[in-house]
Amino acid sequence: MAVLGNFAGVRENNFNLLRCIAALMVIYAHSWGLSTQGEADDPLKIFLGGSVGMLAVNAFFIISGFLVMQSWGRQRSLLNFCRARVFRVIPGLFGVLLFTVLMAGFFWSTLDAEAFFRSGETWKYFYKNLLMIKTEYDLPGVFASNPYPDAVNGSLWTLRYEMKMYLALAVLGLLGYLGGKRLRLFVGVFVLWYLGNTLAGLWMLEAPVSDEMLRLSLCFFLGGLATCYGARLPLHGGLLLLLGALMLLSRGGLMYDLFAALFLSYAVFYIAYIPRGWILKYNRVGDYSYGLYLYAFPIQQVIFLKWPQLGPLWVFGLASLLTLVCAIISWHLLEKPLLDYCKRLNSAVTMRPVTAMAKG
């Protein structure tokens, strides 16, 4: 039987495809949430017991935890690790913020361009979202009359959580808690922390940790844990079906988030490595998932601005096509060139001590 550890270091996998599917799931969910109908009418949400967009974001964090943990092991340098994370997140974010502000100022806002660009709210939106100080959602005079008013890019909220996960992983790595007995200690502490905060929500008006932080940290943790204990994790279709059944049976219950995270984690790793052959050809295309995720929300809001009564499925199809164009441009002109530059920088830093030692 195949185990996850057998695929350690295998570069031919389906993670790019999975991230693209997750991004499309977010577009699908927002097509309902931003419409006059609302997400409550989404048939997939009714069946799954949770928002399709929420499950997609969970999958993003699972994949991120798995791959970023591997990155930490490869880099062996805090500088390299931090630089890799910054170059992955910031260029695409800068691009979408610049695109949004310019398009809003000249085409989407009810204010004239001069008033829009003079407004402090405009630049607060730009720099606070870029630095991930606080997620800002509105721009002056933009989308105020939409079915879901004022929100310009509701997808940006997850990026702050992503950066928090990177920081937490780096701190744990520096303290030596990503291997050996200390890792087992951390796993035990995390399980107690998660269960304690989950149960606290039953009798406390306000839980000590937000639902978002609890859910996303669990997903990131499960992804990272799979990197460490992959040699013990079998990949079998029967186990995938069992976890899927447990998720569906737990709908509406206290443990739904836990079972959903377990099922999604297992499904991600199963789909990433077990299907082979023609499906791997997707990797030749490029990684457009980040651009799809970043650009979709404002594009969907523009569609609803022009055609507020358009049905969710029509918006999903139209927005997916328009967003894909933006994602392709973002990947080839901005994200990939800077990622390649980052790799060259990190390779130079890695080689420097070796060269110095050889001369000595």
Distance between the terminal alpha carbons, to the nearest Å? 49 Å
What percent of residues are in strands? under 5%
Order of helices and strands: HHHHHHHHHHHHH
Instruction: Choose one word for the global shape.
Output: globular
Q: Uncertain spans, ≥5 residues at pLDDT below 50?
A: 352-360
Tally of contiguous helical segments: 13
Query: How many domains make up the coordinates?
Result: 1
Total strands: the figure is 0
Share of helix, binned = over 70%
Largest sheet: none
> Mean pLDDT, nearest integer?
90
Overall radius of gyration: 21 Å
Structural class: mainly alpha
Structure description:
- InterPro entries: Acyl_transf_3_dom (IPR002656), Acyltransferase_3 (IPR050879).
- One of its GO terms (biological process) is polysaccharide biosynthetic process.
- It comes from Pseudomonas pohangensis.
- This is Peptidoglycan/LPS O-acetylase OafA/YrhL, contains acyltransferase and SGNH-hydrolase domains.
- With 360 residues, this protein is mostly helical.
- The protein has one domain (4-169, 211-355).
- The chain has helices spanning 15-33, 43-48, 52-75, 78-108, 113-118, 120-131, 157-174, 180-203, 211-229, 237-249, 256-273, 289-306, 312-359.
Summarize the structure.
The protein is mainly alpha-helical and 360 residues long. The protein has one domain. The protein is built from 13 helices and no strands.
Key structural traits:
0% strand, 13 helices, 360 residues, globular, mainly alpha, disordered C terminus
